[in-house]
Amino acid sequence: MTTVTLAGTPVEVDDEGFLQKPEQWTREMGEEMARSAGIEKLTERHWQVIDFMRKTYLDTGAAPSMRALGKTSGVAIKELYELFPKGPAKLAAKIGGIPKPRGCV
Amino acid sequence: MGGGTGGTLIANKLRRRYGAETEIEITVVDRDDRHVYQPDLLFVPFGLVESDSIYRPRSKQLRSGIEFRLGKVERVESEKNTVHLVGGETLPYDVLVVASGAELLPEETEGLTGPGWGATAFTYYSVEGAAALNKAMEGFEGGRLVVNIVEMPIKCPIAPLEFCFLSDWWLQKRGLRKKTEIVLATPLDGAFTKPVASRILGELLEKKKILVEAEFAAGRVDGDARKLHSWDEREIDYDLLVSIPLHGGSPFVESSDGLGDELGFIVVDPNTLQAKVAPNVFAIGDATNVPTSKAGAVAHFQAETLSENVQHFLAGEELEKSFDGHANCFIETGFSKALLLDFNYDVEPLPGKFPFPGVGPMSLLRESRLDHLGKLAFRWLYWHLLLPGRRIPLISAQLKMAGKDTSLLSSTEEGVTG
Fold first, then answer.
1. Partner of A91 for a Cys bridge, out of A21, A72, A84, A104, CB 3.0 to 4.6 A?
2. Under CATH, which number does the domain B106-247 receive?
């Protein structure tokens, strides 16, 4: 567990940069993390996914899996990969300030 | 509902608890009368067991005093305590235990069941699939063997690794190993879901020269060109594709209001196994959404908690929060060796000795011949001790820390991965 400064505020993150306390998150931090992940600007479609991830995590205590995201976020898997290259579920979780989704077990 | 490992166990345990001479009636419903010993599916492709020797009638595994009904469930109407069967028949209940398992959904991956399915692309997660793969393996002359987990969750998450290990052994035995590349394409970022086991199993894969394509989210199969494509546009060529397809809950779950999650698994309290939808509904085994492995050993440990909780519920008592996510699995590694994993919701698999600390005789997370014999012996235990609902000596339902080496945990983990 390390502390880094995001959008001018110190926050606790894990080894891979996932926020450990979702309540410390702000949208500005999300934008900053998106930029360092190579996403220049977060569009409305990005935010639809990020907000959905965050809400699901805060409501249920678990981030949705990739398939659940494709089924229920209103954004299909193909587009998810266009929005968040490489790993949509992981990247959207990171930008949304929630812990790394467990790959289940 | 369901006469597999979980359903049979819970029915038999409850029948034992209440005795035959009570007013408690127990009915098990299933759409067929074939109970498969699923751990043996792994051995079928390699000709180590015959596919028609790994199942027995479901009805014969149930104690006397349990009714077995053949029927396909259409939906559960939990407000009316009623199960609707296809064809219009209804079954009212006081307590419902959903033990309907997980279904394979190969058709949900584009192209997987298209050209080449059953010829160059297979799954061994069904009896017929495993038998067909055995035929294909017998005719295999080398090339690229690709084992792909489409997405988690799957039944027995270490089985694909075992398949790779056994393929390595089998190909060596046939003199084909040098002509074959074995690739494990997995959506996980390593060999397994938990750090210490992932590292140790990763090293074992490397030692056996099995290539791992990590974080590979399979999106599409082109059976004509024999290519597996990921969503992020990577592609893997194959000569033989062994797919572990998407899993979901039983189809009736979607038609039953409030019962399941978006993948069709029953939403339950992870410690009591009571369903969220209603207090008199419970679930066990692969059918649940609990964050531990979908495996028979888990259903076995859950059955302890669940049989007590059904009894508590009927007596109007408080439920016990005693299920801890305990899983215990043998991993077959080839050349008559295996290793053993023991973990739960909070404690990841660690090296050590089992069940007696320091003594064993089983080794945890380390290859041994005895672990392999343990895996084989389990086949007998399953039909004769486990399913009838008898206690398996020396193995407790809750995880024990004694005998486990915690020195490999990083300081921040403290054994907790949850």
1. A84
2. 3.50.50.60
Distances (CA, A) of B283 to B209, B290, B357: 41, 10, 33
pLDDT in tens, B336-347: 999 998 999 888
- Nearest residue to A96 via CA among A5, A41, A31, A37: A31
Residues of chain A with C-beta less than 8 angstroms from the C-beta of B157: 105
Which of A52, A73, A104 best tests the B interface by mutation, with the highest count of B CBs <10 A?
Answer: A104
Residue A9 half-sphere exposure toward CB, CA atoms < 13 A: 16
- Where in the sequence of chain B do the CATH 3.50.50.60 domains occur? 5-102+249-314, 106-247
Classify the complex by whether its ipTM is higher than 0.90, answering yes or no: no
- The pair of structure tokens assigned to B72 is 């396909």
Q: Which residues contact B204 (CB under 8 A, 6 or more apart)?
A: B165, B191, B333, B367
Domain ranges of chain A: 2-95
Write down the pTM of the prediction: 0.91
Query: If we measure between CA atoms, which residue out of B223, B253, B249 comes closest to residue B238?
Result: B223
Asked whether B314 and B18 are in contact (CB, 8 A), the reply is no
